[in-house]
Amino acid sequence: MASLSDTAPPCNLIARYATFYAEPGYAIRTADRRVFFVDHDAQTVQLGDADVFALVVLGDVNTAEKQHLLDVFNGGAAAIACSRAN
């Protein structure tokens, strides 16, 4: 069995449950203060100033879901598993 490194989400990622034009998903703010919306089908949209009025922030996302969102941003589970050094 292989040992995997700890992949805890960084503290600078802020993720919240949200809706964007009534579509449920997640609002994410990165360390460089960009805002993204990720729906439950993993479709990611970067939000600009004109889009923010349609975003309704609902509440905190737990650690496991933050890690899942990071995995989606990094190409998904298959891309992460194939990129690890043996």
Q: Concise description?
A:
With 86 residues, the chain is of the alpha+beta class.
Tags for this model:
elongated; 22% helix; alpha+beta; single chain
Q: What this model shows, in words?
A:
The chain contains two helices and five strands, in the order βββββαα. The chain is elongated and about 45 Å long. It starts with 13 loop residues before the first strand and ends with a helix. The protein has helices at residues 63-73, 76-83; strands at residues 14-20, 23-29, 35-39, 44-47, 55-60. The chain has a five-stranded antiparallel beta sheet, with no helix packed on it. With 86 residues, the chain is an alpha+beta fold. The protein has one domain.
Helix and strand layout, with pairings?
Blueprint: E1 14-20, E2 23-29, E3 35-39, E4 44-47, E5 55-60, H1 63-73, H2 76-83
Antiparallel strand pairs: 1-2, 1-5, 2-3, 3-4
Q: N-to-C terminal Cα separation, in Å?
A: 11 Å
Question: The biggest beta sheet, please?
Answer: 5 strands, antiparallel
Strand content: 25-35%
Summed over residues and divided by their number, the pLDDT gives a mean of: 81
* Count of individual domains: 1
Characterize the overall form: elongated
> Secondary-structure element order, as H and E?
EEEEEHH
Which parts are unreliable, with pLDDT below 50 for 5 consecutive residues or more? none
Number of extended strands: 5
Structural class category? alpha+beta
The main sheet orders its strands as: 4-3-2-1-5
How large is the count of helical segments? 2
Q: Considering DSSP H and I runs of 4 or more, what fraction of the residues is helical?
A: 10-25%
Q: Which quaternary structure do these chains form? A: single chain
Cα-based radius of gyration, to the nearest Å: 14 Å
